[in-house]
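@channel sequence for tomorrow's demo:
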Amino acid sequence: MKIYLMNVSGIDPSDEKWYKYLSEKRIKKVKRLRKESRKAQSIGAELLLRYAVNQITGENGLVKWDTDENGKPYLTEHADIYVNLSHSGDYAVCALHSSPVGIDIQRVGKCDMGIAKRFFTAEETEYIEASADRESAFFEIWTKKESFTKAVGKGIAMNMKDFSVIENEIVYEGERYILKKCLPKKDGYKISVCYLLPSEPS
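structure tokens (generated this afternoon):
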């Protein structure tokens, strides 16, 4: 697995010089966004995707990608490389793996126990309440849950209370998913990644 992190705060989304590095799909998305910060995050996400894929393939050019019915991105010319993207605050992050993968980054903010009790399992809520740093624990759980739903490929269509991320392995529909926390290069962020563990040959 390869994970790439990029600071997007230096991107001026009004400067169309970035467009030559972006797909038409991304350009349309950027133009639909209203907030400048969201535009910069979106531009940075594709710049990072292009860099990451070119590092793996040895190519140098635009990366052809699309999204499935649940909005999960995939490479149209490299079916053996699974990708996932996330962005928050000043950072975009990209994961590449040989099996389905999900990644999530969140800037650590306020711990909202109302959200926790609504979307997290009782076990996860208890973990946060017992933590000496509730903000850190809250966003640890949040990013783990997001990365898992993205690895499965169902995203927000999944009921967040149907699974727990307290353990670092989840069995879902007969398949095993591994959860890992990543150490961000910048304080104040949480990053988690989840990937499908391929079945052993019978």
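heads up for whoever presents: The chain has two domains: 2-98, 104-197.
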